[in-house]
Amino acid sequence: MTSAIVVGSGPNGLAAAIRLAQEGLDVTVLEAHERPGGGTRTSERTLPGVLHDDCAAFHPTGVVSPYLSTLGLDRFGLEWLWPELDLVHPLDDGRGGVLSRDMALTVASLGPDGEAWRRLFGPLTRRFDGLIEDIFRPIVHVPEHPLALTGFGMRALLPATWTARRWDDEPARALFTGAASHLFGRLDTPLSASVGLMLIAAGHRAGWPVAKGGTQAISDAMIGLLTEVGGKVRTGVPVTSLDQLHDLDGRAPDVVLLDTAPDAVVRILGDRLPGRVRRAYRRFRYGPAVFKVDLAIDGDVPWTNADARRAGTLHLGGTSTEIAAAEAAVVRGEMPERPFVLVGQQYLADPSRSSAAANPLWAYAHVPHGYGGDATEHVVRQIERFAPGFRDRILATATRGPADLEAYNANYVGGDISAGANTARQIALRPRATLAPYATGVEGVYLCSSSTPPGGGVHGMCGFNAAETALRKL
Description:
Layout lengths: L2 E5 L3 H12 L3 E6 L10 E2 L8 E2 L6 H4 L16 E2 L3 E6 L5 E4 L3 H7 L4 H13 L1 H8 L10 H11 L3 H5 L5 H11 L13 H13 L3 E2 L4 H13 L3 E4 L6 H5 L8 E4 L3 H8 L5 H9 L5 E10 L12 E6 L3 H12 L9 E4 L13 E10 L8 H11 L7 E7 L1 H7 L15 H5 L16 E3 L13 H13 L1
Parallel strand pairs: 1-2, 1-10, 2-9, 6-12, 10-16
Antiparallel strand pairs: 3-4, 5-8, 6-7, 11-14, 11-15, 12-13, 13-14
């Protein structure tokens, strides 16, 4: 039987393993951590019984993934839950932009800019199911929906700051710019509008749901399916060289997929890696980091904006201009006084994460790559800015800075949870300039992490695409 080893049990590694096992390969997933899941784990970080997502928390790309959505993961316990409102971006004057699956609700929240919002996102939302099939593939491919992809591509090429000028008032501008900030990069550069367009269209199409019981439920369901189709997962097995895999069970695998960052590929493959590929992987750039703050709070957050009290996700950063300036500072290696902060109120959709009156609040700030300071107070101040009296609700706090995040998951180099800077070049050509982005140049060995197309997110498409590449070669 043809055998395969997948290194790393994040959603891409598991997706790759499932796809290979579906075709009859004997698949083993190796995970360095004692718990599988990579960025899709959930833990009691603050108080007993209070569940916090360790990294990934909201899943607009997971629920619409062209591969994950076909797997029937509900049979293995995965249940998507939606908050009353998907996303709110509050402003200092008490107003806020609202992202909802109900386009009319979003349009109404944006006042005079509502119809301009509908004109941009209405067509993208209607065509999203076909569009996502092309967006989640390498940039060089024969598109299945060329007209939809061309329309999206023309808008995605623009800087996010230019797109924000379509609207006259801050609720719409800030709502879009906050979504675009998931790029983790400067928002005045080409292609920086792409992430915002995709995340908002996904939100209108299918929302920003959470997994019942925590993001770990996604990993557990995928492992359940992998086991059903004959694969297995071994934890506590760090992989440092290809020779180590050749010795596994006394035989060399036919296929190896690496759900790792490019720098780990260089270490694992060593001299087997062609010089041109080694040089490209060493030139691969990593982006800004996050500083994660998990809080147990008494009751709810006292948001000034009433819609924010019903939202699963909050973007805190003020105006579009303020957000763009903070993101530019982070890219320059400077810690802004008011960083962009993402807040999760998953418990509103999923009360099982709470314990009595103690609710989990999930948050992180965008910080410079490798930032060594403590950004806890920056995060708390940003929340307090839009929710006066918040400090008095805090029962317990747990933090992870960039170094802690890299120790938790080696793919988060310098605290970069996107596994690679989203520069214009690396959005288009990651991890290197090639027509075969998953191939490493070593026979039978492929890269399948978020450092490959289509990039970050819990969608499994990097792993699926890499597995398809391996299967075609077989």
